[in-house]
Amino acid sequence: MKNLSSSLLIKIVTPRLIAKALMALDKSTAIVVGVCWGVALVTLVAASLAVHASVDAKKQADAAIVAAPVLPEEVKNKINVKEGRDIVARLQHQFPDIKFDLDGTPAVIIKSDDGAQFHEWVNALAYLDTLSPEYQWRLRFFCVGKCAGSDLMKAEVTGERVVFNLPPPKQ
């Protein structure tokens, strides 16, 4: 059966039969067939170029994803009450003449009602950053002179711990 089909195919594709088939076509039919074959070839070339372009774009996209750095995410945590109490206790030990307190926010309150202790009060305020450098300290309230109540100098400072974490993996 194989020999029969292959011998039949060879007989059909012989140059003599192809030449007869082409002679049987009239001029308009030959133009239509030629144009169809030309359009098919142009479409085949365009499809081949599009496939190659999409494969190249996929490779470039994969390379860009690999080259993109994984950036950490910043998480800010406010100082908690226990850490605030520890900091206030350490400040009070270091500067016994200055009054330290912790409010409910919690914010560290540094105050004094004696003007002669101004330099010590400023040093206590500056020492807070040295004492706990893992926090970002922000001055929420600052007053020197006539402050609310009987305080001559008062500062309220809030602290946030900044932690950098890797982002969750993308799925």
Describe it for me?
- There is one protein chain.
- The chain has helices at 2-12, 15-24, 27-67, 81-94, 118-131, and strands at residues 73-78, 99-102, 107-112, 135-144, 153-165.
- With 171 residues, it is an alpha+beta fold.
- Strands 1, 2, 3, 4 and 5 form a five-stranded antiparallel sheet that branches.
Topology overview:
Elements: H1 2-12, H2 15-24, H3 27-67, E1 73-78, H4 81-94, E2 99-102, E3 107-112, H5 118-131, E4 135-144, E5 153-165
Antiparallel strand pairs: 1-5, 2-3, 3-5, 4-5
Helix pairs in contact: 4-5
Shape annotation: rod-shaped
Largest sheet at a glance? Answer: 5 strands, antiparallel
Quickly count the helices: 5
Helix content: 40-55%
DSSP strand (E) fraction? 15-25%
The stretches of 5 or more residues where confidence is low (pLDDT under 50) are none
Radius of gyration: 43 Å
**What distance separates the N and C termini?**
56 Å
Structural class, from secondary structure content? alpha+beta
Number of strands: 5
The arrangement of helices and strands along the chain is: HHHEHEEHEE
Average pLDDT rating: 85
